[in-house]
Amino acid sequence: MAHKNQFFHAYFQEWMRLYKQGAVRDVTYRKYEMSHKHLKALAPDLKLSNLNRQSYQALLNDFALNHERQTTMDFHHHLKAAILDAIDESLIKRDPTRKAVIKGTVQRSHKVKFLHQRELTQLLEKLELNQNVSWDYFILLIAKTGLRFGEALGITPSDFDFSKQQLIINKTWDYKSEQGGFAPTKNRSSMRKVPLDWQAAMQFSQLIRHLPEDQPIFIREGQRVYNETANDYLERLCKRAKIPIISIHGLRHTHASLLLYAGVSVVSVARRLGHANMSTTQNTYLHIIQELESQDNDKIMRYLTSLI
Q: Where in the chain is the domain with CATH 1.10.150.130?
């Protein structure tokens, strides 16, 4: 039973097992476990009774020494959720997370987030799309649909509806666990039907015509797939195409960005990506939306001027 003199890391472990285990996806729960690991390493002797703004800020500062600001923010959100419950249980009198300052190391050099249309065209021209399943088809699928990595891995032949030219997303592949296997989608909104262009529909109809209906297209039986493997292959393709190096997730960003630049509404892009709400799309692609709004303002002014 929780008590005031309990170590904070012990309370957090009990809390996440009670409230998070089985309530969140396994991949999400593993993030809580990682937060607990860091908490125990950084503050092994910190008790609930000693949690105050100063001790909590010191904990965040120690974590931030070796982590980027966003990672520190995620760590903070995990701890804060448990702390708020401890306050409700009268184990802590005041909220030690109030006005917490989130710090972090300078962001490391990341891969380009998205490609321009010309660059994506150059990349797709380097794909070798023969009769065999390959990473080339995997890259083509994400570039054309904006699927998440796990969603694309979980695609089976039965998920294609060629009569309606659409791809049904109702599961993912748990590539982060050793056992693998199908897993639920990230959220309800992730369960969706993604329209396919006729060219992609033709290519995949030929590719999967002799494959087992309910087996993942891109995973052989007993095989474990790593995100790094796909990213390494994509990196080699980018170098051959002489374009900026991008990650598999960057292809998803590329898909969304090009749709926005083409004039597709934020609402439609959000649905296509399977975002839980439109604000996620707006925050992720804020720089593009602002750029398009600026262009719209110019169009508005030109139109209003023409009325005189």
A: 8-88
Q: Are 217 and 133 in contact (CB under 8 A)?
A: yes
Residues sharing a CB contact under 8 Å with residue 166, sequence separation 6 or more, in sequence order: 193, 194, 195, 196
pLDDT digits (tens, 9 = 90+) for 53-85: 999 999 999 999 999 988 999 999 999 999 999
Model confidence, pTM: 0.71
CATH topology of domain 117-290: hpI Integrase; Chain A (1.10.443)
**Cα separation values, 276 from 43, 55, 167, 188, 226, Å:** 35, 35, 19, 7, 26
Distance CA 41, CA 202 (A): 54
Q: Give me the amino acid identity at 176.
A: K
Task: Please provide the size of the chain in residues.
Answer: 308
Helices H / strands E in the chain, number of each? 13, 5
Spatial contact of 248 and 230, defined as CB atoms under 8 Å apart: yes
Span(s) in the chain for CATH 1.10.443.10 = 117-290
End-to-end CA distance of the chain: 76
Give the pLDDT confidence of 127-175 residue by residue, as tens digits: 999 999 999 999 999 999 999 999 999 999 999 999 999 999 999 999 9
| 86 Cα distance to chain centroid | 30
Q: At what angle do helices 227-241 and 248-261 cross, to 10 degrees?
A: 60
Separation CA 268–CA 265 (nearest Å): 5
| DSSP letter, residue 23 | T
CATH numeric code, 8-88? 1.10.150.130
The answer to whether the beta carbons of residues 165 and 140 sit under 8 Å apart is no
